[in-house]
Amino acid sequence: MTPTGFVSQLLQLVVALALAPLLVGWVNQCRAWLQNKRAPPLALPYRTIHKLFSKDAVVAENASPLCRLTPYVVFGAMCCAAAIVPSLATDLPFAQAADAIALVGLFALARVFIALAAMDIGTAFGTMGARREMFVGFLAEPALLMVLFTASLISGSTSLPTIVETLAHREFAIYPSLAFAGVAFTMVSLAENARIPVDNPSTHLELTMIHEAMLLEYSARHLALIEWASALKLFNYSCIGLALFLPAGIAEAGDWPGIVVAAPILVAKLVAGGFALALIETLSAKMRIFRAPEFLGTAFMLAVLAMLVNLLLGS
Amino acid sequence: MSALPLYAQLINLFAAILLLLAFAMLAQRRVLSLIDLFAAQGMALAASTAIVGWGTGQSHLYFSAALTLVLKVFLLPWILYRLIRRLDVRWDVEGLINIPTTMLIGIVVCVFSFNLAFPISQLAVTVTRSTLGIAIACVMLSFLMMITRRKAVPQVIGFLSMENGLFFAATSATYGMPMVVELGIALDVLVGMVILGVFFFQIREQFDSLDLKHLEKLREGE
Amino acid sequence: MRRVRAARWHDAARGTAQRGSPHPGRPVIEILAVLGIPLAGGVLLAAIGHRREAPAVNVVASLATFLAAAALTARVIADGPMLVLGRAFFVDSFNVFLVALTAFVGFTTSLFSRPYMRIEQEHGRLSPARLRLYHAMYQLFNFTMLLALLTNNLGILWVALEAATLTTVLLVSLYRTPASLEAAWKYFILCGVGIAQALFGTILVFFAAEKLLGAGGGALLWTELNAVKTQLEPTVLSIAFVFLLVGYGTKVGLVPLHNWLPDAHAEGPTPVSAVLSGLLLNVALYAVVRCKVLVEGAVPTSFARSLMMGFGLLSVVVAAFLLSRQKDIKRLFAYSSIEHMGIVTFAFGMGGAVANFAGLLHMTVHSLTKSAIFFAVGHAAQKAGTQVIDDIRGLVTQSPMIGWGLALGTLAILGMPPFGVFASEFLILTTAMREQPWATPFLLAALGVAFAAVFSRVQPMVFGETTVKRLPHRPAMIPVFVHLLIVLMLGLWIPPALADWYREAARLIG
Lengths: 315, 222, 510
Fold this sequence. Notes:
The structure holds three protein chains of three kinds.
Chain A: H1 3-34, H2 44-53, H3 65-84, H4 100-121, H5 124-155, H6 160-169, H7 176-192, H8 220-245, H9 256-283, H10 292-313
Helix pairs in contact in A: 1-8, 1-9, 2-8, 3-4, 3-8, 4-5, 5-6, 5-7, 5-10, 7-8, 7-10
Chain B: H1 6-27, H2 31-56, H3 60-87, H4 99-123, H5 132-147, H6 152-174, H7 179-207
Helix pairs in contact in B: 1-2, 1-5, 2-3, 2-6, 3-7, 4-5, 5-6
Chain C: H1 2-14, H2 28-48, H3 54-79, E1 82-84, E2 89-91, H4 93-122, H5 128-150, H6 154-172, H7 178-213, H8 222-228, H9 234-252, H10 260-267, H11 270-298, H12 303-323, H13 329-350, H14 353-384, H15 395-398, H16 400-413, H17 420-435, H18 440-462, H19 478-492, H20 496-509
Antiparallel strand pairs in C: 1-2
Helix pairs in contact in C: 2-3, 2-5, 3-4, 3-5, 4-5, 4-11, 4-14, 4-20, 5-6, 5-11, 6-7, 6-11, 7-9, 7-10, 9-11, 9-12, 10-11, 10-13, 11-13, 11-14, 12-13, 12-18, 13-14, 14-16, 14-17, 14-19, 14-20, 16-18, 16-19, 17-19
């Protein structure tokens, strides 16, 4: 536990909490620009969360303690994930406690709790949303694991900081397996973060809701925490993607100036990433739910292909 | 791992793209997109042959690449386009098994091919020897595509992409076969396509459709 | 120079196992004639194939090819194995005998095809355009087969065999019935997929040889490969042989890759069935055997032989049992072709002087007998207007020539003495009893089942009440009886020159 490690860990967590809603706002802005609409202000997600915290929480009569507990569990899981993913630096003390597979486990934990809580109340929307969410998640998880396996095959370890360090230090070369894995990861993160083409984050139509359907029963601070957690999830996925495929600029251990430089670099990368996400969302149409297996099957297959190509070609 | 020379990396990249295209053809539903994918495969093949020629200084591979380009990127897709337009083939291509299952089987086939190629790759002296596994996988995936399709045109495209895979195997294991043999093979493929074109018309004339279920009547003992 | 030639001739006359080493030779004219005449004939007939003289032109071209092949054969017997035109073509006793056989059967089939196609035209089953296609493709098909036999380059061998399939695909579907379209489609796709495997095998052989012989093009030449075969990588060649056997074996019709064969042989015009059954299967098997010679040198175990024996035996047994389910006369004899090709493959798999000799003899007599049978069957089907066995009855009463031709041909193909097929089958069985006793009961059972099945179907066709009509033109029965006569002669007495020739070829196969 070096001082730099402690500081970088703390800094990373704070930055994640602070920047996640901004990322969501940025994506919304880009989407509005691309669709020729007037964008909401960039800081709108912050104002929404702040507004929600000051309201009174209302919980359904037949809700069990699970319903009250879930927002905190989900938010906590996302914070833990933010602590593990090397977005600013690779010297993260907490990261030694959990590797890439545990990361997937954290996301799974959050998903399970949200789904259970949605079914807890017993309304039709909640159950339906929970079913669909588990369906998508069941298909997305293997793909995500395969992507992480590919990365760990190349770097020889499943611990994310080690992966990042190894990948950042490789000479620039064309790695087809990483290219495939990158595409697969993009598809998986679209599915997991409830983005078009898998799910529309702003819809409340019964036929098309997946993620939103599970949130209908929450209010006030619970809803605030869950919204923040969703933003954090998007932020985490983006950082994982950047760490695996664009690791340049992440500070090494004991590198004080590096951490200072890493933050603007991260912001720059996220700006570009957010714009790319908005572009993908604008150019795609939402798929019917039973096309989701094909989409995710393709992602899984690409990820497996990446792994096989890596095994065969050594790159 | 030391980095390979640039041309070897490029060849690995093209090999991976070929494999990706083979999988994409497995999953594709529309016949026009199939032809586009086949043309893209031909393009990747020509590019990789040219790069092998550049990297190893074997100039006959440039002719080979040019031949592939003319035949498989321009001529054959053009013939297929004309056939499709005149035959008025419907777009949707139903398969015998659904697409996610096909892809899973494709992955198993891929693993099997890589295993098969491994002992042979060990013995090769070319710099591109590791791509032999991908070549065999492309052949097997095209074969899978042929088996799981009902319509005549996708079967033929599967057959042609099998030949692509074999050509890639030749280039990756042995820096290409002698020119005279390659010309002969190209001629065979071209003549085969022409004959198939004529044949499709005969089938369509007889059955008013290119669905292959009409061609399954001959059984044992009849 | 004259001393060298005299010495070699002396060796050939003595019949000793003195193999002349291949050297750039002189029969350039003969080779060019053997290949050029069918090619030119095909091109010519593509233009004039619908005219009245077209069948005569076809016959003349085939006769010229046969004469050129005979001249080539004489040269090879005199001078021994030779490389011609640089290293592009290679003739030794193994392939020149097949060249002669192919040219001969091509010639007699063209004789048969004249009246047959005329009758078909009378029956209204063919248009002038289709006749043009038929005649042109017939000559081109001969060209591709001869090219496959004479080339020294494994890659060109592949190209020629695939071209042989391509030339006949449209012929199989000539009548445009649903059944013939299906047969042609299966033929194209299954043979195409099969031969793609053979291409992969060829690539692997090239790959193994390139390390020893360099990439200059010498690595695909059979003579070069034969010289260095003991130094080739055994693993690669074993894998290559599997692919080559599966690939070329599909074209031979080995079970379980035989699916296309009964349909393709049954659905086209009869001359096409005759050459497909009689000639193409031989050429494909020739390709397999050439590869087997290479692989045997490289791989110390009896891997190649066991594979060939296995496939051969499987083909014999399965085909024999499927014979009893056939209702179409041409399909019946197509399965019989599968069975006999299985026997030959089994014989070559056993190896050794006697088995190889018997295999070569069997290839010869099977070609001659099967084509004779198809000639007779073709006319019989024309008389009856159908190919269904149950609808053809009493041929002898209406047309004794056709009836007896069919009866004798059937007896010949079923292995009755004194026809040649009996001699070769006898040799193969005795060798099997000596070397592979486990296989003998299967072979005997299969041959017995085949005999019962075919004979019981052909007998009511030939004798008894008649249901057939007269033909508008006289049928061509001379080729049938010429073939059967040759087969009879081979059964009773093999001319010593021919025996030497076979022995020499058997030695080359190893």
